[in-house]
Amino acid sequence: MAADCIWHNARIRTMDPEHPFATALAARDGKITAVGRDADILTLTGPGTQVTNLHGKAVLPGFVESHTHALWGACQELFDVNVSFRASYAQLIDAVRERVVTAKDRHLIIGGSWRPDMREQMGPNPRQTLDAVSPDIPVALSDVTKHLLWCNSAALQLAGIHDDSPDIPGGVIERDPKTGAPIGILAETACSPVRKLFIHSPQKLSTATDYFVQAFNQLGFTAFKEPMAMESDLAAYQAADERQALTLHMAAHIVRQSPLVPELVPYDEMERWRRTYASTNVRTDFAKLFLDGVAPGFTASFLEPYLASAGYDVTKHDADAILLLRPEDVAREVTELDRRGFTVKMHCVGDNAIRRGLDGIAAARRSNGASGLRHEIAHSPFVHPDDMPRFALLDAVAEVSPKLWFPNAATPAQVAVLGEERVQRCHALRDYLNAGATMTYASDWPAGSPDANPWTGLAGMISRQDATGTYPGTLGADQTLTLEEALPLFTTCGAQSLGMQDETGSLSAGKWADFMVLDQALEDLSPAEIGAVEVRQTVWKSQTVFSR
User: Are residues 490 and 528 in the same domain?
Assistant: First the structure.
């Protein structure tokens, strides 16, 4: 049978170990029918076949982004006060002041991002500092990790946080040491009363969907995973799919528990969302748990204490007390979600959180047997060597994110609380690989990453340096991967984490025709050149969804 489309005269890296390289591929009804040499594939040309000569350009399978808050990031770019991760304190304040002046109503102004190194400039009472910028209109600014908020008095009042408000379990309300009154910095679950006010209309979410789809296709993505979906997110993704605007495969991890929403989402509600919002390109058999927070806020759960020099009381260190879920609760939650057929992604930053997450997967395996669900440890930057082999033993996935495997804007804050030696062990990709662990790539944009660009991430894996040259130095030089070792994280392993290993992730007969076209083959480029790659064309299900 003749093909609908043929692409030939190309340098194709298929990511299929049986046939790793080719020069042409054919597709019909959106799926690949044959991959091989020009002479063989061109015989499939029929009267209506669209034949494209790629003139020696390189072809790769479309990339999979395994952890990105797509709607959140798009809304930040389009609607919020938004300065770059490299912006100065003055630039952030100027941006907030400009929004206050132009605000047409007294609704909450949200935005960011501030870095821990700005705390001194925020003064001893950051709440009052922000009050001076906006005394009446509520303002809430996220840090780069999105685990902390800086609020003025109006925002705290709007959220119902007063001078005599009690602490919120699982969170931190920073307080004046003399009066005990909140000073405007909230962490983890303490952010939830304010976060609940971060609401965008369905119209804005529709606009945001169109924005990130275009941006992702431009970067070479043909699939992604939303790691923290509530009902409004699910509705927006489904609506985009139904109007054929979602030119990406995707999976949505439905939130069971989150520091942003401290109440557990009932299992029955999760089941309802799963049934209601699944659609052609939206998979909903996925769930999300948070086991800890982030290191700069002292909310990541480490076996060893933070540095005393960072202001941490090492005598009171209790790794399990830092967890957002008790170890026994982790085991119970993963077991029940596994039983219900949800693939679980667990936010784990500290090595103790990772250990407890793996313990939870082990508990599920003991109770339910081999379900076939490959549960994920999200971020997984600081793993104890003893736990490395457990990923393979438990058939668990190490999702490596955000882009912290090279020096970047967050690195100084990590060093300040953990020390240089521990930070040098961040994202031990080589050790993971040697231990037989399956890894996937993710940016975590807009939390912890300034963008969703996979090319700087790939370059960082190969060089352990910042491909842009903005941040000098090398982070964990002994943990580099080769190009051949790194590419599966973006393709075949990512597809497997979606449960779509038989449908995408490599270019072979029977799979969707999901691929990108580059000017040059990656093996001909240096890491810095890989970091600067611009995709020429992205094809999804045989459709050209981006070209330049």
Answer: no
